[in-house]
Amino acid sequence: FQAAHKQSPSHRFPTLLWDSLPHGGASQVHPHIHATLHSDHYYGQFESIRFASERYYREYENVTTHRQKNYFRAIQDIHMAFNLTISFNGVTVLIPITSHKEYDIIVLAENFDERFIKVIYQVIQGYFNKLKQFSFSSCIYLPPLSPNQDDSGLTPVYYRIVPRGQISSLLSEVSSLDLLSIYNVNKLPADLFAEIVTWFKRI
User: Fold this and answer.
1) What are the C-alpha distances in Å from 146 to residues 14, 34, 46, 95, 139?
2) What is the predicted pLDDT for the residue at 175?
3) Domain limits of the chain?
């Protein structure tokens, strides 16, 4: 990302997308990763989240009694109130109350560093060894490179992983509900949180 940004400083919104195995949409069996670096905004769905965070920041910018101006901090606080977060020195794992699928997990971090990488590693190992979910789609959105004054309500490092069904199944993991209506989730967030807490006992 830094090399591309150096060649074209206007391109500064980095994204990594990773699909695992054909059931997860990968055309190759090996880790199949796409990297993008956009100039005006983030790639795909995350831009709507970033836009919401900026709007949240600007709407409360002049409210002196409003203590939490950062959208993502507010999201963490909401999930903390539901006991759906676990934090490790600047890295927070949460089970979203707006999950897309069962076993939907989000990780937020202040920095892309070794602590963040260790948490991501534990999440993926939990997917493999505990949940037996070998096929998944995931993403990492990094903060803008060389941020400017317009980057109000900056985003953190954002990771999300979503299962894509059992690799031995002939059935698709999505239906008309997911594609055309609402996300079809058949597991309570609290049940998943109770499971993932056990993945981080050594961190």
Assistant:
1) 11, 22, 19, 30, 21
2) 85
3) 2-200
3-state secondary structure at position 70: coil
Q: For 188-198, what is each residue's pLDDT tens digit?
A: 999 999 999 99
CATH superfamily, domain at 2-200: HIT-like (3.30.428.10)
Residue with tokens 């959105």: 141
Q: Which residues contact 131 (CB under 8 A, 6 or more apart)?
A: 103, 163, 195
Q: Which tokens sit at 20?
A: 């695992």
Burial zone of 203 (CB within 10 Å; 0-12 exposed, 13-18 middle, 19+ buried): middle
Per residue in 48-76, pLDDT (tens digit) is 988 888 888 877 765 555 555 688 988 99
pLDDT surpassing 60 at residue 99: yes
In whole angstroms, what is the distance from residue 26 CA to residue 180 CA? 23
Phi, psi of 163 (to 5 degrees): -70, 155
Contact 176, 86 (CB under 8 A): no
When pLDDT is averaged across residues 11-35 and rounded to a whole number, the result is 84
Look at the pTM and tell me if it is higher than 0.85. yes
